Amino acid sequence: MTRPTRKLLETLKGHAQPIPPVWLMRQAGRYLPEYRATRTKAGGFLDLCYTPELAAEVTLQPIRRYGFDAAILFADILLVPDALGQPLSFQEGEGPKLAPIRSEAELATLKPEATRPKFGRVFETVARLRQDLPHETTLIGFCGAPWTVATYMVAGGGSSDQADARAWAYRDPAGFGRLIDLLTDVSVEYLSGQVAAGADALQIFDTWAGSLPDNEFARWVTEPTTRMVAALKSRHPEIPTIAFPRGAASQAKAFAAATKVDGLSCDTSMPLPAMADLGDTVCVQGNLDPLLLVAGGPALDARVDALKAAMAGKPYIFNLGHGIVPQTPPENVARLIARLRQTSG
Ligand code: CP3
Q: Which of 31, 50, 66, 152 is the catalytic position?
């Protein structure tokens, strides 16, 4: 008996689909009442991430509701520093907090050999998910890119301009390079563990790729991602990787060619003609404005139609240009899916 094809994986191999497969960044989250209920039951956000039963439950919630073509593992990019021994906390309404790492001595406190217990819980979530998901739903594992994760580790949390990491990189490129190398190696192990547990595809989130000038972008964004993709391809030749170098629309084509990623996720600033052009060389994902999902109505429909038309005949995965925001009305997500999947018009 032949099993139904996995549309999203076919698309990542370069095969265009008449109706593009769809998933949304942050598809599990606070805009869903069932997420808020499970989150309350878990206690803290990190408890939710590290409890396989609950993390799997919130991953499945948007699949049950909307029938997305992919589920993304519920976790966070900052579990990597947490597992390395840089304790992480999330304060309500304040975002992530970490004890900053800004010197070689602080760097030496990180323990790549000690990640197993925490990573193991994430791998258990992946294994549960692959068992519980329908065969045709692709399971996406993920991590943050070394540059973006480093910006949080060096600043001790979120920052508007990533100044601390940029300054360390200029002042002491060799020292900062050791942090990037460590993150590159640990992230390969982490993603490889997710594949061994059942992930079908991987995404590397580089939320702050756009804060670097071109020479620094090459060194801290393109180079580590290229190394990660090469290492993952040699271990798992069948597993496709998507990169999301947010804020780097003008460098997207060169980045995709250099890194050899299978998919490139475009942020909202990427013009549709540039996305269509990119679609001639790589599978493209994106880039609906998450605020259109808040607004809904005919403006949402019109942009869904425009994206679908611009990317027709190209390998294309429908997604947002950044994550769903908490004030999104769930019915607007249903509207988007219905519009995208309607066969005429
Ligand atoms: O996409 C998904 O549904 C999978 C789960 C996922 C989360 N975070 C859950 C989450 C993924 C893929 C991420 C990635 C992530 N985390 C990124 C890269 C992508 C992006 O959005 O730019 C970054 C930069 C982070 C770091 C992070 N996590 C911040 C800055 C915050 C606080 C801001 C916020 O939205 O609250 C988080 C918390 C977080 N991660 C939440 C969720 C659902 C909200 C936590 C809650 O329930 O209170």
A: 152
